[in-house]
Amino acid sequence: MDPLWLLLLLPLAAASGWVTAKRERARPPRRRDLPEAYFKGLSLLLNEQPDKALQVFMEATEMDGETVEMHLALGNLYRRRGEIERATQIHRNLANRAGLDDELRQLALFELAQDYFKAGLFDRAETLFQDLREAPEHRESACRFLLQIYDQEKEWCDAIAVAEDLARISGEDWSESQAQYCCELVERSLADGKHAPAERQLEAAFQYDPHCVRAVIQSGRLASLRGNHANAIAIWRGLERMAAHALGEVVDHLANSYAALGDHAEYKKFLLDAVDRNPDSRLLAALIEVMKREDAAAGDAAGGGDSPAGQQLLLELVRRRPSLEGLCALLKSRAASGAVASERERQDFTVIADLLSQVVGQGATYHCHTCGFRARSLHWQCPGCKHWGTVQKQAAVGRRGAGGGVAAGVAGVEVTVADATVADATVAGAAAADNTRATAG
Ligand SMILES: [Zn+2]
User: Fold this and answer.
1) Same-domain check for residues 208 and 330
2) Do the domain assignments include residue 300?
3) 48, 145: one domain
């Protein structure tokens, strides 16, 4: 090239270099330009030294107020330490900064939404997360936060829709949770006496999860509320094969429906069969109650299931399926009957039975098989880990039953019920769904 041309090009190149440099200075530094302090802070964070990291980030942002990543790191640290107001201030300032590119603004808004979420300002968090749901980069995380918000706020229709979206994005199966959200809606409808919406919500629940135990129980309740007790009994008894552990949850409902039909013999037959295969103490308690009523109706002098025949039956049951409840009932029955040798023996039996009653009554009888949470009553959503359908009844004492498949533990040891197979569950779930539809007519 002609040297003269080169001389002419030199100032042009210098000017272009100056313009580029100026542009670079005007733009906030990006990830590749991060100062050394950022990495030092990160390293401290990784080494579980958040206080030192905070110090480094604070000094660095004072020296270089433009670095976006540094502000984000500082804001997150404040949030982790529970200083939500400071975190919110940093993230809000960042999101409002003029000239910030869209990607970084969304990042700042995502952090701000998390600040609101942590502060319990769900309305503000929801608005931001809903906006961020439109951004592909934040869509999945925003959905996860929204689901937590709707879960906490009991906004079940929104929860169903977000779970749908989340399942699509992540490829995860949310159907069991969605079925539970439908069951929550069913619960509301039943409480308001709105049977038709309850039926539609139950159908939706079974579409999401044909094995949903809660929906089966609710289907039976809907049928009984409509006066269709035979159908209700058929639905609940589907649990025997589908989810035997849940049978105790419906034994009171079954008692009412059998009573409505006047079919006491069939109810007793069901209970005799159930206690043989199921360690749930409520089934045994229900059977003892039936025996008491029978004794009273027969005008038996002993009464209260304490007739010789009643005692013999109790003894057989306790031998076949040992349980504290059974032993307790047997002792009480002995103390109340004339089968004791002396007044002293009667008193001893009564004291032991009372002590056993207290032990049985004190224990946490439900536990979550996911996180181990223990409770005195059934929670469809575990208060510990927030999983749905993981809390189950636990037997106090038991052993492998004659019916097979049922194993129980002694004092706090886990109980498993293995006789419900997936195939059985599918059939029973589908049957329950059919029954629900059948009750429409
Ligand atoms: Zn749990």
Assistant:
1) no
2) yes
3) yes
Residues with Cβ within 8 Å of 305's Cβ and at least 6 positions away in sequence, in order, are 288, 291, 292, 294, 295, 311, 314, 329, 333
Rounded to the nearest angstrom, the distance between the alpha carbon of 380 and the centre of ligand 1 is 10
**CA of residue 375 to ligand 1 center, whole Å:** 10
CB atoms < 10 A from the CB of 279, how many?
30
Whether 316 is in a domain gets the answer yes
Are 216 and 241 in a shared domain? yes
**pTM for the complete prediction?**
0.71
- What distances in angstroms separate CA 183 from CA 13, 49, 180, 200, one per listed residue? 71, 45, 5, 11
Q: How far is the CA of 371 from the centre of ligand 1 (A)?
A: 4
Identify the CA nearest to 337 among candidates 318, 357, 353, 322: 353
Residue 109 is assigned to a structural domain of this protein:
yes
Domain that holds residue 379: 364-419
Last-in-domain residue among 114, 145, 166: 166
Q: Is 404 left (phi over 0), alpha (psi -120 to 50) or beta?
A: left
Q: What is the CATH number of the domain that holds 120?
A: 1.25.40.10
Instruction: Please write the tens of the pLDDT for every residue from 24-48.
Output: 444 444 444 566 767 777 777 767 7
In this structure, are residues 424 and 297 in contact, taking their beta carbons and an 8 Å threshold? no
Q: What span, in angstroms and rounded, lies between the C-alpha atoms of 396 and 248? A: 14
Q: What's the gap in Å between 382 CA and the centre of ligand 1?
A: 5
Task: For residues 189 and 156, state if they share a domain.
Answer: no
b/e for 61-90, b at 16 or more Cβ within 10 A?
beeeeebbbbbbbbbbbbbeeeebebbbeb
Q: Note whether 62 and 150 are same-domain residues.
A: yes
**Packing angle, helices 122-132 and 102-119, rounded to 10:** 150
- Could you tell me if 108 and 228 lie in one domain? no
Distance 294 CA to ligand 1 centre (A): 41
| CA–CA distance, 224 with 126 (Å, rounded to integer) | 40
Rounded distance from Cα 400 to ligand 1 centre (Å) = 26
CB 406 within 8 A of CB 419: yes
CA of residue 408 to ligand 1 center, whole Å: 20
In contact, 254 and 267? CB cutoff 8 Å: yes
Q: Which two tokens stand for residue 177?
A: 């949770």
pLDDT tens track for 399-440 = 333 333 333 332 332 323 233 333 333 333 434 444 444 333
Structural domains in the chain (count): 4
CA 373 to ligand 1 centroid distance, Å:
5
Q: Average of pLDDT values for 94-102?
A: 83
Q: Are residues 333 and 375 in the same domain?
A: no
Is 116 within a domain? yes
Do 141 and 43 belong to one domain?
yes
